[in-house]
Amino acid sequence: TLAKLDGNKIILDSKAPDGRSGVRTYEFTDSGYVLTMTTGDVTAKRYYSKA
């Protein structure tokens, strides 16, 4: 897993021994953060807000 900080984003690039790969991006804002997960051609987003 390789982690990179880019402004308000943390980007995690993961590779499995069998060749699969995926990217998780955490994008932080004043109101919370968005987690974007991508594997192959599938992308999912989760939205988190501060209580």
Give your account of this protein's structure.
The protein is built from no helices and five strands. The protein is mostly beta strands and 51 residues long. The chain has a five-stranded antiparallel sheet with strand order 1-2-3-4-5, with no helix packed on it. β1 and β2 form a beta hairpin.
What's the helix and strand layout?
Elements: E1 2-6, E2 9-15, E3 21-29, E4 32-39, E5 42-49
Antiparallel strand pairs: 1-2, 2-3, 3-4, 4-5
Short descriptors:
51 residues, mainly beta, 5-stranded antiparallel sheet, 73% strand, Calycin
Give the overall form: elongated
Low-confidence stretches: none
Largest sheet: 5 strands, antiparallel
The level of helicity is: under 10%
Order of helices and strands: EEEEE
Structural class, judged by helices and strands?
Answer: mainly beta
- Domain count: 1
- Average pLDDT figure: 95
Strand content: over 45%
Figure out the total of helices. 0
What radius of gyration results from the CA coordinates? 12 Å
- Could you give the order of strands across the largest sheet? 1-2-3-4-5
Give the tally of β-strands.
Answer: 5
Instruction: Give the distance, in angstroms, between the N- and C-terminal Cα atoms.
Output: 30 Å
InterPro entries: Calycin (IPR012674)
